[in-house]
Amino acid sequence: MKKYSFAGFEYRGLNNLGDNIQSIATERLFPEKVIQRFDRDRLAYANPSEPMKIVMNGWFSHQPQTCLPFNLNLEPVFWGFHITDYNHSWEYFRQKEVIAYLKQYEPIGCRDPYTADRLSQLGVETFVSYCLTLTLSKRECEPENGYIFVVDGDHIPLPLEFNERIISVSHRSLCWNRETLKRLLAKQLLRQYKTKATLVVTTRLHCLLPCIAMGIPVVFFNNPKDYRVSWVKDLGVHIYTGKDWDSVEWNPKPIRFSEKKKIIENFQSRILINNISNKIL
Fold first, then answer.
1. CA dihedral sign, ordered 28, 29, 34, 37
2. How does 119-139 read in b/e, with b if 16+ C-beta sit within 10 Å?
3. What percent of the chain has pLDDT above 70?
4. What tens digit of pLDDT does each residue of 77-108 get?
């Protein structure tokens, strides 16, 4: 049997810390540390030093024509996989040779029903795996005298009584090409949410999902008709819009996500297939 090490993503030239948050959530479930990183949008150029697995949890792609890891020493595990509709990515993924590649790694675990359905229509076996950010550990207790974190939501009119407790942050980093620093900033954000937030108000999917996992109350603003986020309604999330200011529930309860343990077990079983290093996680 072939022994695999594990590779991780870099996000060169990008500044969305939500990408790094996904990597943090994914890599904590590996049986060993990541030994090499490759640019998520240029995996076709990856040159692993030994046989490795890489988990395709994320948004694909800014450069679809180079985003699949065709190197025989880099085996993809499709979990939390999302194909964007915002550019020409689907034109690439519906090509016969790409479909044939995906079918080698069936079933494809998709972040959302939209991606799963479209790939299924192309003859690829899929299932909805959700995103691995939903597996982050729940916090043990709510902070005393905590804060209200507003994450990329400066346009949202908040209740006046929130004013002295607000911390405004962004998932947009100024460190476009400093990968180690971006990972550090993402870890710091997660730590702040977990230890200091009594409420998070956000427009960011990868702020919402980690907060659900950590047991933090969230108010989420976005477009409920947007396929990229509409599926969170299945988790019990109310998606507010700019027309809903008067009806917002500003004191929500944390959302209970009961599938966390099952997802972790299934994912860990998946990444350990054909791997001698069957450690108990």
1. negative
2. bbebebebebbbbbbbbbeeb
3. 96
4. 999 999 999 999 999 999 999 999 999 999 99
The residue behind tokens 């460190």 is: 175
Q: Which stretch of DSSP H or E encloses residue 120?
A: helix 113-121
pTM here?
A: 0.94
Helices 179-196 & 205-214 angle (0-180, nearest 10): 50
What distance in Å separates the CA atoms of residue 213 and residue 255, rounded to the nearest whole number?
Answer: 8
Counted residue by residue, the chain has a size of 281
Amino acid code (one letter) for 155? H
Residue 211: which residues within 8 A CB-CB, separation 6 or more? 193, 197, 200, 202, 217, 218
176's enclosing H/E stretch is none
Q: Using N-to-C axis directions, what is the helix angle for 17-27 and 179-196, rounded to 10°?
A: 80
pLDDT for residue 210: 98
Terminal CA-CA length for the chain = 21
Among positive and negative, which fits the CA dihedral 150, 155, 158, 161?
positive
Q: What is the pLDDT of residues 135-193, one digit of tens each?
A: 999 999 999 999 999 999 999 999 999 999 999 999 999 887 899 999 999 999 999 99
Please tell me whether residue 67 adopts helix, strand or coil conformation. Answer: coil
3-state secondary structure (DSSP) of residue 38: strand
The amino acid that residue 37 corresponds to is: R
147 φ, ψ to 5°?
-120, 165
For residue 245, count other CB atoms closer than 10 A to its CB: 12
Q: What is the pLDDT of residue 272?
A: 87
Backbone angles phi, psi at 54, to 5 degrees: -135, 130
Q: Which pLDDT score, from 0 to 100, does residue 274 have? A: 55
- pLDDT of 206 > 50? The answer is yes
